[in-house]
Amino acid sequence: MISNMDLFLRLIIATALGGIIGFEREVNNRPAGFRTHILVTVGSCLIMILSIYGFIGYGPDGQGGEPARLAAQVVSGIGFLGAGTILREGTNIKGLTTAASLWISGGIGLAVGAGFYLGALMTTMIALFSLASLRILEKRIVKLRRYSEVKIKGIGRPGFIGDIGTVYGKFHINIKNIVLENDPSQEEDEYEYNIQITFFIRTPPKLNRLALYNELKRVEGIESVIWDDVHVIHNNTIL
């Protein structure tokens, strides 16, 4: 039977490791953050401990039960929890990484509950590296492919996105994806409303940025343009 000290130690380690992954998600403002990851990891740890030590004497010939049975349900159960973090906005899907981080947190909790501390620690470090460091590499790869993120804020109106797309077409810019965000304070029946459109675009090797900016600022309704986190147009003025 597990001692009280060992039980306490395993739950504390599970809390710490789940908190490390959850903190990274919290900092990046993801649907499931610090508290959620801790709860998943500690809950998984407790279930694993219960699976191993909670049914001693209840199995065949007075032996223990089958520890894998109860623990196996954690994997499928967390799948449902992770599905709640996945959101679809048009053709854009968000939350897959957070769902995966919840799933791996459950695995870490199971490992700690079974006493595999080294495996749980190494998995936590690998997960943290994947979430934090590889994001930087991912952004660099996107830049090498000449993909840019352009955020355009303005007054939404019929044909607004089409006019912007026409400008992009004039400069042979390919649109990879579009994410549309409306101002939640606006009434649904208002004809004009504040809007932010994020374009993920691929630009040609030789792009005349100044000419493009001049064309964009002529589009009716555009208030500001942010190109790869750099403010390039504001109030009809090129910065």
TrEMBL record:
Subcellular location(s) per record: Cell membrane
Annotated ranges, domain MgtC/SapB/SrpB/YhiD N-terminal: 11-139
Domain of life: Bacteria
InterPro entries: MgtC/SapB/SrpB/YhiD_fam, MgtC_SapB_SrpB_YhiD_N
UniProt-listed Pfam families: MgtC (PF02308)
One term under GO cellular component: plasma membrane
Family: Belongs to the MgtC/SapB family.
Full protein name: Putative Mg2+ transporter-C (MgtC) family protein
